[in-house]
Amino acid sequence: MRYKFLILTLFLSVFSFSQGNLLWKGYFSYNKIYDISESTNAIYGASENALFIKGIFTGDITTINSIDGLKADEISAIYRSDSANLTFVGNSNGLLLVVKSDGSIVPRRGIIDEVPVAPTIKRINHFYEIEGKVYISCDYGISVFNLTTLEFDSTYFLGPSGSYLSVRQTTAKDGFIYAATNNGIRRASLANPFLEDFNQWTDISGFQWSGIASSENQIIAARTDNKIFRYNGSAFVEQVTLSENIIDVRASNNYFIVTTLNHVYVYNQSLVQIAHILSSQIIDIPVTFSCATVIEEIIFIGSNENGIISIPISTPTTYEFIMPDGPVLNDVFRVKKSTSTLWALYGKYNRNYNPYNLEPPYGFFQYPISKLTQEDGWDVIPYADLFGAKSLSNIAFNPNNENELYISSYYSGLLKVVDGVPTELLNNTNTGSNGIQAPSVDEGSRINGPVFDRSGNLWITNNFVAKALKVLRASGSWESYDLSDVIPETNFESYAIPVVDKNNTKWLPTLRNGLIAFNETSNKSMVIKSEALGNLPDIDVRCVTIDNRNQLWIGTARGLRIISSVDQFLSQDLIQTRDIIINEDGLAQELFFQQFINDIAVDGANRKWVALADAGVYLVSPNGQETIYQFTKDNSPLPSNTINDIEIDNVSGEVFFATDKGLVSFKGTSTKPEETLQNVYVYPNPVRPEFSGTIKIAGLTDKAIIKITDIEGNLVFETTSSGGTIEWDGTAFGKYKVASGVYMIFVSAQDAVETTVKKVMIIR
């Protein structure tokens, strides 16, 4: 069963940055809500590292994420200030991001850089605004932010002798500020200019508190023993005891709202219960709650699974899900693109190929699958439909039937999916004596790959068994190949994703034994390791890929190597890999020396995208001698420097980066070249005044010659394609923008036999 809900329209934002002014897209998850805030006409929802805003009266929904410059780490609190027309985004590491009315985002690192406490206690828990200042509750105390200067004013440490004290929430009433802490409630006069002195704060109640909120009439506070109290001016008086831990308490629109994991309680000013929402009322999908508020007599509840839930107070049996279209989770382990669908997998293993103890949000690595289609947007295949397949690690599309695909499970076998529906789980119980093996009950059938060869045979690796290489023939039969001749201890070996070259040789990356090459036709196998047996910088090979010149690029835990031609395996008994030496600041350096390489992908122009562990992604020239781009979280919309996977759509040139903090893409120009010039096209066309990107000419053959002239025949641009697409910035050889008018595009193939002419209209 698939779940589909009312998803409001999402307008994807476009981010232009300094390295080429090209387009980025974000594919973020908005399912898990960390906090919500409100203005008079909108609800603000914060997911892990992105925001969305839904207009109460218009129904419009917009997003703010890394594409827009919101470089959040992990959002822990948000606050919308209508008076200052600002939105505050607090993070678990103390980073404060201020979103201004013009869309610009101002980072404030005062808590991170200047507050003299351990990084582990800099979490921002709550914002409270009064008299032109925002009081920021943190795990060490309170920091005060000035709305006029947009700078931090001061910091208050409220513990004994000025020690650190975790402040969960603050509020103010009748000239006093109140702070709910993990060791009592403190109070001080807002008029007191010496609040940095802990002696100016009075302890008015002991115990541990989880929240405090006030209205015009009274103050309520939530204690960690699930009790709600009302302040009578001299003491806190118990009012209600709830059945679960209180995780959020706030006041909004003359209501007090208290949230637990499975309940939301709405009280009026006299603490009379007006509404009670249970998670079990949401019957479409199991949900739990994280926070809630009330706007215009509608309860808005942040859920941990499916965005914001809106429920009218007058009809609490009706509800609606609110969230932008997106994948289920941000931590995408593998992303694969077919012609029509983008697939995202979350089941993972760590650097030692261990799928356990990863603390997934869906239990013991019981992840669903997300898929994006142009017609339906993002959809989810829930774990319940996967026949128990856990830790899904990679996808292979059947070259003879794109609607049939296989997904390797690094615990349960091989999942077959037809027309988007899982149909069968292949494992040791149903593939025969030559099929998938399970070395033990505890280890499961750890399968990686899969990959098709040119004949439609499907190859996989099977960890911890002697016959580690297996193939599902196009005929439907299984075969297994013993690798114990080249690997001394096959029962302890783990494999990354293999590739198959034009000669049908299988190249298998391993954790402990370098790179294995195997060809069943020639009955030949070879191991390529360190020093004398292959010159690898490390025996831990993380990834391999074959470029457009049949060179094998090898990424290891400590650097890069290449094999000049995969044909060497057929003619040589020993292959020595080689490094790439580049000139850096006048010194000879090894490209990616000692770097942990997560993935390598080859685009249509034979350039290499290289993902480094915790260091972002590089685009290098076909021979590796030139760095074209280096994208990190600091200089690009990447939400994280940890790139799990790279996938390239060779038709559009879009390059997808699956990170541990979200999926983004870079609209590249290196698409796969066409065989002829019959399908050359130009976009956008016409080019309107508001367009700020580059003009693309696509559908080209490799090394095609492109000349652009104005209507009078004056040459304004000339280039040669590398791949299937080139771009033009709309200037005359980079000097000045061309004027409005029609421009002629003359294209000829490398041999000049085939030509075509296109037109583009530019409107300034």
From TrEMBL:
Gene3D superfamilies xrefs: YVTN repeat-like/Quinoprotein amine dehydrogenase
Coiled coil segments of this chain: none
PorZ N-terminal beta-propeller domain segment(s): 43-202
Taxonomic superkingdom: Bacteria
Stored InterPro entries: PorZ_N, Quinoprotein_ADH-like_sf, WD40/YVTN_repeat-like_dom_sf
Signal peptide start and end residues: none
Protein name: ABC transporter substrate-binding protein
The species this protein was found in: Flavobacterium aquatile LMG 4008 = ATCC 11947
